Amino acid sequence: MSISEYENEGLLTIDLGAIGDNYAWLRERLADGCRCAAVVKADAYGLGVSEVAPALYRRGCRDFFVATLAEGEQLRALLPADVSICVLTGIRPGTERRCAAAKLMPILVTVEQLRRWCAGTGSEDSNGRAAPCALKVDTGMTRLGMGEEEFARLLQVPELLGRANVQLILSHLACADEPSHPQNPAQLARFNDFVRRLRRVCPGVLASFANSSGICLGDAYHFDLARPGSALYGINPLPDRENPMRPVVNLRVPVLQQREITRDSAVGYGAEGRAVAGSWLAVVRGGYADGMLRTQSGRGRAMAIAGDEKIPVPMLGRVSMDTCVFDISALSTVQRARLEEFELLGEGWTLDDMGAVAGTIGYEILTSLGRRYRRRYL
């Protein structure tokens, strides 16, 4: 697609084939008997769940995780009935029946939530059990999850666990992207203990522990169901090594103006950037309203596209809402004449690269990409 076809908007290309290949790569690394799910919360990390989830289904994925009840309902309408959908942040009081009607499995974190689930689903089976649910335990993340004391109390009321129909126990790794971090084996030991004790009461319950980076920690972390998210979308699951995932997104934006600087000048808000006399600047479409975080101001880079050439160039000054500025002094006169667009994200400058200079992670870059880009799915 040429620059003229997307005019002034910018073009975000999303490679569904690469997402499928990344899913296959992760699945192949799982221990025998471990299924591979896919986390498609936040509109598939901002890339469009209506396109991404069916692509993953076609590659064999049958287990999905979302963040909210509304996301789960949307996904249920998109996919065939044979998929399992878990709601990571659970459900609010009073929405139990709605959740069960959509055949979603909420992830619950307190005894009270389990009691409400039993009382509120309105979908008891022939054994008097509620619709299936999942239980999340805290093994060291200190985020959502049932703590040790409450878990011990829960085990004292096995009839509640039976009626609640708990099908899955899960927890979340805090430091999986740092393979040598002592938190990983410590959390693994705690999770094994939680799983062992729960299976005494609920013998058939499945266990899920590994996220994207957790899959790379080895078989001991895999259990019955792994749930990768970010790695599906091209983010490196092990930042200290070469990224094994295929890149998924490519973002190109048009050049709005080229200008020669005839005298030393300040650039952008706060006059933080400085352009010296004789330099050339390019103003491009795309700013912090489009996911170009202000924290990369003066430190970011991009690839200037001059015909068939890609030339890395530095950002200059602060990112504005709709635009940012790059120093194109390194381009020749011929290259400047051919310059029509910039590649803000691609193989030459990845989500992880942009996240690093912005002082954040690729996840935030990915989920911040705005809706003003024209989108193309491969």
Write down the CATH class of the largest domain. Alpha Beta
List how many beta strands DSSP finds: 19
Figure out the total of helices: 14
Described by strand count, sense and barrel closure, the largest sheet is: 7 strands, parallel
Distance between the termini: 12 Å
Radius of gyration: 24 Å
CATH fold category name of the largest domain: TIM Barrel
Major sheet strand order: 3-4-5-6-7-8-9
In CATH, the architecture of the largest domain is: Alpha-Beta Barrel
How many structural domains are formed by the residues?
2
Assigned CATH superfamily of the largest domain:
Alanine racemase
How much is the average pLDDT?
A: 93
The residue ranges in which pLDDT falls below 50 over 5 or more consecutive positions are none
Q: Structural class, judged by helices and strands? A: alpha/beta
Overall geometry: elongated
What percentage of amino acids are in beta strands? 15-25%
What does this structure look like?
The protein is an alpha/beta fold and 378 residues long. The protein folds into 2 domains: 16-233, Alanine racemase (TIM Barrel), CATH 3.20.20.10; 249-377, Beta Barrel (Lyase, Ornithine Decarboxylase, Chain A, domain 1), CATH 2.40.37. The protein is built from 14 helices and 19 strands. The strands form 4 sheets. It has a 7-stranded parallel β-sheet with strand order 3-4-5-6-7-8-9. The longest helix is centred in the middle third of the chain and has 19 residues, at 183-201. The protein is elongated, with a radius of gyration of 24 Å. The N and C termini lie close together (12 Å).
